[in-house]
Design brief:
This protein is an alpha+beta fold. It folds into two domains: 10-275 and 396-407, no CATH class; 276-393, Conserved hypothetical protein from pyrococcus furiosus pfu- 392566-001, domain 2 (2-Layer Sandwich). It contains eleven helices and 20 strands. It has helices at residues 39-49, 68-84, 140-149, 170-174, 202-217, 232-246, 251-255, 288-294, 330-340, 351-361, 376-383, and strands spanning 10-11, 13-18, 88-102, 105-115, 119-120, 129-131, 152-153, 158-161, 181-186, 193-199, 226-230, 261-268, 276-283, 301-302, 309-313, 316-321, 345-349, 364-367, 391-393, 406-407. Strands 1, 2, 3, 4, 5, 6, 8, 9, 10, 11 and 12 form an eleven-stranded mixed β-sheet that branches. Strands 13, 14, 15, 16, 17, 18 and 19 form a seven-stranded antiparallel β-sheet that branches. Helix 3 packs across helix 6 (232-246). The longest helix has 17 residues, at 68-84. The protein starts with 9 loop residues before the first strand and ends with a strand.
């Protein structure tokens, strides 16, 4: 029986995974937007991979954006090389059920394709699938160009669903013993372990589609089905590329066009192993006094009790209380002050990493407040977006690792 995926926003897709000789710990690496101020992490991974096939050769880590042009050319060559060497096994019309073991527990996800017709990153969008953070439009064209010149897609996009009953992914995970195991490997970069099972038979696919259809029917006006948790700008680039291409296609050609879909991992917001961590700010080369001056509109005062934010520098920690904005988020108010002062910023996942960078490179750190994950869907539905870099889903080493591949030309 053919499953009808129309209007559900997702569907099975043709997925590639490395064949047995290459299906090992060299293949997966962490999302390219991690460790942006720690080039040595990526350099260590490069040495470990050596000449082995790896998704490291299919990405340009943001730590090396100053070398993006030369590295992008190497990426295109690696993609063509891997295709010519017939490195991949094909999983036709499938999902991949993923179990990721991290220090926070086992996080379960489902790798699938989203329909870009059901996704809109514009502020105030009412689409089924929405961005969670402000999309910086200038960041889209370079990513779009890379996508349009790439033969393969690897994805660190994590799509979230607010499913407290675990009615969508839970039944598949409960049935995993009946599914073909397609990989089970330890991860580099202190990433834990990754297992994947192919989901292809009609019974499981139809069951998921029926559960998703019932879930969607319960949504109220203005509510969204899925939220983009990680990889907002990568997905926005895929959307921009599709909008560019579809104008030259007939309605029939648009239905199953390869550019209409993008690879993502769907995760339940309520997974106990999905922790929302604050993303801290590194103010590059600036003293705490300069940061305090930038925060002056929020009336910063040294805190004797619980702090809203904490400044970190060589002289020690400075806990601060701030004047709260009206209905908006404190994180947004802080970011607006930093942007208005045009302070040079980097964004660091993890307090330990931030303190390590400050010890070696100086500057001032800002420990940001937590964002409760149960507020994600309500705030995005109310405000249209979250402030940029509001939260991180886990520490850097818990981020999605590239494993599955999709041919996009």
């Amino acid at each position: 029986m053919m499953t009808n995926w129309q209007g559900l926003g997702v569907r099975p897709v043709r997925i590639l995974i490395p064949k047995a000789p290459y299906n090992n710990h060299f293949w997966p690496v962490v999302a390219l937007d991690q460790y942006t101020s720690q080039k040595e992490v990526w350099q260590n991974a490069d040495r470990e991979v050596g000449e082995q096939p790896s998704t490291l050769r299919l990405i340009v880590p943001e730590a090396f954006l100053d070398e993006a042009k030369s590295r992008s050319k190497a990426v295109y060559r690696a993609m063509d090389d891997y295709i010519q060497r017939d490195l991949f096994t094909t999983l036709d019309d499938s999902f991949v059920l993923v179990e990721r073991e991290t220090q926070s527990g086992k996080r379960v996800g489902l790798v699938l394709a989203i329909d870009l017709e059901e996704y809109d990153y514009a502020q105030g969008s009412q689409s089924l699938i929405r961005a969670t953070e402000q999309t910086v439009l200038e960041r889209i064209p370079p990513r779009q160009q890379v996508r349009e010149q790439s033969a393969l897609e690897v994805s660190h996009v994590m799509l979230l669903v607010d499913d407290p009953q675990d009615s969508l992914i839970g039944p598949l995970y409960a049935a995993r013993a009946d599914l073909p195991l397609v990989y089970d490997i330890p991860l580099m970069m202190n990433g834990g372990r990754l297992k994947g099972w192919q989901v292809k038979d009609d019974g499981h696919l139809n069951g998921f589609a029926a559960a998703l259809s019932a879930f969607k029917e319960k949504l109220k006006d203005g509510q969204m089905l899925f939220a983009v948790g990680d990889g907002n700008h990568s997905l926005a680039a895929a959307k921009a590329s599709w909008e560019k291409q579809k104008s030259a296609l007939t309605q029939e050609e648009q239905q199953d066009h390869i550019a209409r879909y993008a690879l993502v991992e769907l995760v339940n917001l309520h997974s106990p192993a999905l922790l929302f961590e604050p993303i801290h700010r590194l103010v590059i080369g600036k003293l705490p006094e300069e940061v305090l001056q930038a925060l002056a509109p929020l009336d910063p005062a040294q805190s004797e009790g619980e702090a809203d934010i904490t400044l970190l520098a060589g002289e020690g920690d400075l806990p601060l209380t701030l004047r709260k904005p009206g209905e908006g988020l404190l994180i947004d108010a802080v970011q607006r002050c930093l942007d208005a002062a045009k302070l040079p910023l980097d964004y660091v996942h993890g307090e330990e990493d931030l303190r390590g960078i400050l010890a070696s490179a100086g500057g001032t750190g800002i420990l940001m407040p937590d964002f409760p994950k149960d507020q994600l869907f309500p705030v995005v539905e109310r405000d249209g977006r979250l402030p940029r870099k509001t939260f991180s889903m886990g520490e850097a080493n818990e981020k999605r690792f590239y494993m599955e591949v999709r041919a996009i030309r």
